[in-house]
């Protein structure tokens, strides 16, 4: 039986800290103001400040320090559904924050709004009906697609999530209808609001984690400082900021966060002979895969990620490592895409950005060494 997840919550002053663990190992970490100040997923009535056709984007005032960045081109399904009239300066529009502000950049916005539930992703501004990539059985895919079409009835778009396979169609439909009513309520209020205004705030991380994981895992919750100490969360957070990560067998990972991409280097250990009839390189690479997936998730690495595995002799071995990596990231609630090995032998993957990396959340760049070092906050 799969080990349960454990969510441990610590409240200090006005800061809520949330640790997600499995078998006492830290998998994810979040912190937020206790009174809630989330941006990602929130819906705003914004005002278009500038339209830049050459950049194919607009800047939209949503009430934050920096204007949000809105691409002019969205999904094909969105443009087929909504009018293609050009955006104009001064125009008021409903937008959703897909990525939080970072550094000097404002929030990344979209008009193709989506509301995630436990069983569905409801998209009120398009008519696309799709399925989670986790649903890979042909029979389940056919069943899921028919369910999605029956629920949407060409009123909105919907993606059926893997968790929907384990409950009744009625439960899935009830959730989709509740999300649809949320959108209807926003649309009813918008004409009476003055931009910029927040129309809907995404729930706190406790609710989000329960929504995204409890359908597939047993979830235990503890909200006291003794649990925080018992599971050594502070020690695990400190270790997660280290550049080097030790692996079983004496090997290690070297993890570097860069502006354009993230890199992970797999170093061999002291073992000189493989044990299971496979090459030493393949054995050590497969041993590294679970920890690589955990570190990506824990550090909240995003964008382009390049993994430099120990050199392997055959395509079959590279395929085995790629398959293992695909399996290792399946449980992550954030979207990962494994693109395969490059011509230089690096495994290339991407992970959706949903907020700050752990490093950026807990440390500041050092202004005395041209920001190459980091200083812990607090």
- How many β strands by DSSP? 22
Oligomer status: single chain
**Whole-number average pLDDT?**
91
Largest sheet: 6 strands, antiparallel
Q: Could you list the spans in which at least 5 consecutive residues all have pLDDT below 50?
A: none
Helix content: 25-40%
Straight-line N-to-C gap:
40 Å
Rg over CA atoms, rounded to whole Å, is 22 Å
Provide a count of the helices.
9
Spatial shape: globular
Strand content: 25-35%
* Strand-pairing-aware structural class: alpha+beta
Could you characterize the architecture of this molecule?
The protein is of the alpha+beta class. 27% of the residues lie in helices and 30% in strands. The strands form five sheets. Strands 4, 5, 6, 7, 8 and 13 form a six-stranded antiparallel β-sheet that branches. The protein has a six-stranded mixed β-sheet with strand order 15-16-17-18-20-19, covered by helices on one side. α7 runs parallel beside α8.
Structural descriptors:
alpha+beta; 9 helices; 378 residues; 6-stranded mixed sheet; 22 strands; 6-stranded antiparallel sheet
């Amino acid at each position: 039986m799969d080990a349960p997840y454990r969510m441990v919550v610590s409240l200090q002053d006005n800061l809520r800290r949330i640790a997600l663990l499995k078998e006492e190992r830290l998998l994810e970490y979040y912190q937020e103001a206790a009174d809630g100040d989330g941006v990602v997923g929130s819906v705003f009535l914004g005002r278009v400040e500038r339209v830049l056709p050459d950049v194919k984007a607009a800047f939209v005032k949503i009430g934050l320090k920096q204007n949000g960045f809105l691409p002019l081109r969205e999904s094909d399904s969105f443009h087929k559904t909504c009018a293609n009239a050009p955006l104009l300066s001064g125009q008021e529009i409903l937008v959703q924050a897909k990525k939080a502000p970072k550094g000097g950049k404002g929030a990344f916005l979209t008009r193709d709004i989506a509301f995630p539930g436990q069983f569905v992703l409801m998209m009120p501004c398009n008519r696309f009906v799709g399925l989670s990539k986790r649903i890979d059985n042909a029979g389940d895919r056919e069943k899921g697609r028919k369910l999605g079409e029956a629920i949407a009835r060409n009123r909105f778009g919907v993606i059926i999530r893997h968790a929907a396979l384990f409950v009744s169609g009625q439960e899935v439909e009830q959730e989709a209808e509740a999300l649809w009513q949320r959108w209807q309520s926003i649309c009813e209020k918008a004409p009476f609001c003055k931009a910029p205004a927040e129309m809907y705030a995404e729930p706190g991380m406790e609710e989000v984690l329960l929504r995204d994981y409890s359908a597939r895992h047993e979830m235990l919750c503890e909200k006291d400082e003794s649990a925080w100490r018992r599971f050594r969360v502070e020690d695990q957070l400190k270790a997660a900021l280290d550049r080097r990560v030790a692996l079983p067998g004496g090997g290690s990972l070297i993890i570097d966060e860069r502006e354009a991409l993230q890199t992970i280097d797999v170093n061999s250990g002291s073992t000189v002979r493989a044990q299971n009839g496979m090459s030493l390189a393949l054995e050590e690479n497969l041993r590294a895969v679970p920890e690589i997936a955990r570190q990506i998730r824990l550090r909240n690495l995003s964008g382009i990620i390049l993994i430099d595995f120990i050199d392997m002799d055959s395509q079959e071995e590279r395929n085995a490592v790629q398959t293992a990596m695909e399996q290792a990231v399946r449980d992550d609630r954030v979207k990962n895409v494994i693109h395969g090995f490059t011509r230089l032998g690096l495994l290339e993957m991407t992970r959706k950005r949903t907020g700050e990396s752990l490093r950026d959340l807990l440390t500041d760049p050092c202004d005395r060494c041209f920001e190459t070092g980091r200083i812990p906050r607090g």
